[in-house]
Amino acid sequence: MIKTLCVVALFFLSTLHGQNPDKSFTVKYVSEIPNIDGVLDEAFWKTADGAHDFQQNFPSDTVLAKQPSNIKMVISDTHLYIGITVKSVGDKWVIPSLKRDFRASTGDSMSLVFDTFNDGTNAFMFGINPYGVRREVQISGGGSDLRGFNSSWDVKWKGESKIYGDYYTAEMAIPLTSFKFREGETKWRFQSYRFDLQTNERSTWIRVPQNQFLVSLAFMGDMHFERPLGKSRTPLAIIPFVNTISERDFEMEARETNIKFGGDAKVAIGNGMNLDITVNPDFSNVEVDDIITNLTRFELSLPEKRQFFIDNSDLFGSFGGSRDANPFFSRRIGIAQDTADNSIENRILGGIRLSGKLNQDWRLGVLSIQTDEDIGNQIASNNNTMLALQRKVFTRSNIGMFFINRQSFKDYDFVERGDEYNRVLGMDYNLASKDNKWIGKFYTHKSFQPDDREGNFSAGAFLSRQSRYFNIFSDLAYIDEDFTSKLGFVPRTDILKSATSFEKIFWPVGKSINNISVELFPIVTWRPSLDYKKTDHDIALTGKLEFQNQSEVSLGFINSYTFLTSTDEFDPTNTEGGLPLPNNLGYNYSSFNIAYMSNRANVLTLMGESSLGRFFNGDIFSLDATLFLRLQPRAQISLALNYNKIALPDPYPSANLWLISPKVEITFSKSLFWSTLVQYSNQKDNLGINSRLQWRFAPLSDLFIVYNDNYFVDQFSPRYRSINLKFTYWLNI
Q: How many angstroms separate the CA atoms of 239 and 701, rounded?
């Protein structure tokens, strides 16, 4: 009987432990300055407190991690010091690259998340791998999805690692000026997660259910400081640049060589605000956009990669619906249409951006950018301004308000009255429950232009409920036909759109399959101006298997309906001179698809998807695949292939659309990187080559050599060519 009671008690206690009660640790104060070499030989590491007893997240989320991880922390007047010990089953560590800002899931790594304002909405993340390669991320929106995961953010800090066979240690020194926090703070919320690709185990300090995003800020413990924190002040940072560029436009028969000067400045305002200033910015060193084959009638959204727009970007860019009605899309700034309606670069003269925390509950964002005039292309000089204010409510929710104004800087003969200015005013409520099971958004926006003040509304609602066995969400958007946001991403107006997902998840007992899910996902669009006539629907049914080696396979069926109105001129092949499909007519078509993703721990990995079926009044076969080869830690080679065979009945054009994108990334060291991307697209009639050599000779200071070459595909003749040498230096004052 006693043995039985002991077994029951032990089982009960282990169950409680697996349920992950509140965890916390104390960060002790030290005056010693450690040598950041990855070796934990300083005396204070022996007595330092920290995070341990990690919880497994994959393949199970109900037991303790099999591979132990131990994090210790101490703090000085200027730095937070972190010591890490990570153990696995062997010395076959997976390190794809030596380049900073690696993707955690592609290799062995440890990531640490700090919610410095204890609001469950915004956080800073720092990561390191067994070779001491570092990354930093800003997390927004509660960390509920990848849209709030900003890996383009950069900040100065130190970190090194040392491998000892089947375990490694790491040291990190993060200046307190790299964080923002309230003066006198005694506690931050903390989480850490680890990828162990030798055993295909994911683990977290605080338990995160598998149905939740790994960096969700709903699941965090506490780190208490032995002494209250002082003022967080970042020294004034000046970041000048000089760029020599030589370019040749073969279409316009123009050749030019010039030198550009400019720079940025970063100024701390109190404990929570940043002021960013840019003068004559240059973004020639930014990675080139990926070309995407577009088989729709609408514009596609591409991510922002320019550093000036990154910090606290969620304050400006998270309003509305990201797919249908985003009123502010920073990529609009610096691009304009010439007289032939082609998108060309519109020089940015300068701008300022003030963003951050006013206090525990309020966030403020102010942005103003001035673009240059181009009289020859009839492009006006515009001021682009946005004011955003956000108020925390309840545990993790917030209410946001914004005002956007895009206005011509002076009177131009070629600017029509209706284009003199565009203003948008709106309010959003973002819902996030304490346990992140409920997520939602409710918004209403209104635009204003000269002599146009009636209607012009955009409104929407989104609500999601997530659980271990059943997920559901519903998204509703209404966009008036006259709603206009010239600084936003609004692919189409005059719509009422509904999207709903029902997903059932099964967790079989076994050693091969982790989970099985089945999802029904209908999307329906009506046109209010056509008496709410249904013009589009996509009804998808998908089944997916996720294996315990982290590979995945899915099968799906989708039925689509598209009504081309009398004003729609659409040729899905985008063939020059091709006959558009008959309009004022509805098309009903269906297809089957299969997708596969292999285990990312393999040296050679594959991601692919293929579909076959009807397409409008014809047939389609699609193949989208990417092959990755890892020659760790020096090189990664990838080959992306997108092929679409569209067969339409005569006299409508058929096409074989190819997009082939090989990419080579070589990391000679943790400070010298070279990458080359080739993109061939016969839909875009372009063969592009982008080659970048980057030398990070000092923290956040770089020398870039960037070569671009573009050719017409049909006649294989040169289109545009450039080479530039850019030097940028981060100077703290």
A: 8
State yes or no: pLDDT of 19 exceeds 60: no
Closest CA to 496 of 523, 528, 529: 528
* Residue 103 in tokens: 């993707």
HEC per residue, 428-458: EEEEECCCCCEEEEEEEEEEEECCECCCCEE
Spatial distance between the Cα atoms of 231 and 78, rounded to a whole number of angstroms:
10
Contact status, residue 408 vs residue 421, Cβ threshold 8 Å: yes
Give the pair of three-digit tokens for residue 642: 């997108």
Q: For residue 566, what is the DSSP state?
A: T
Long-range contacts of 259-265, Cβ-Cβ distance < 8 Å, separation of 24 or more: 263/238, 263/239, 264/238, 264/239, 264/307, 264/308, 265/236, 265/237, 265/238, 265/239
Looking at 182-337, list the stretches that DSSP marks H as alpha helix, in order from N- to C-terminal side: 314-317
DSSP 19-33: T----EEEEEE----
Q: Which of 699, 720, 718 is nearest to 175 (CA)?
A: 699
Yes or no: say if 130 and 93 are a contact pair by the CB < 8 Å rule: yes
SS3 294: coil
Q: With H, G, I as helix, E, B as strand and everything else as coil, classify residue 590.
A: strand
Alpha-carbon distance of 20 to 472, in angstroms, equals: 26
**Quick one: pLDDT at residue 233?**
62
Cα 680 to Cα 342: distance, rounded to the nearest angstrom:
20
Could you tell me where the DSSP H helices lie in 68-141? Answer: none
Q: How far apart are alpha carbons 319 and 305 in whole angstroms?
A: 19
Block residue for tokens 């929106």: 141
The yes-or-no verdict on residue 656 having pLDDT over 50 is: yes
Distance CA(592)–CA(574), nearest Å, equals 24
pLDDT of residue 716: 86
How many helices (H) and strands (E) the chain has is answered by 2, 41
- Are 137 and 150 within 8 A, CB to CB? yes
- Bridge-based pairing of strands 221-225 and 24-29 is parallel
pLDDT at residue 455, rounded to an integer: 83
Length of the chain: 733
Q: pLDDT digits over 236-254, tens only?
A: 889 999 999 999 999 888 9
Give yes or no for a contact between 682 and 657, defined as CB atoms under 8 angstroms apart. yes
Residue 615 has pLDDT above 80, yes or no: yes
Q: How far apart are CA 180 and CA 116, in angstroms?
A: 7
pLDDT at 6 over 50: no
Q: Which residues contact 420 (CB under 8 A, 6 or more apart)?
A: 407, 408, 450
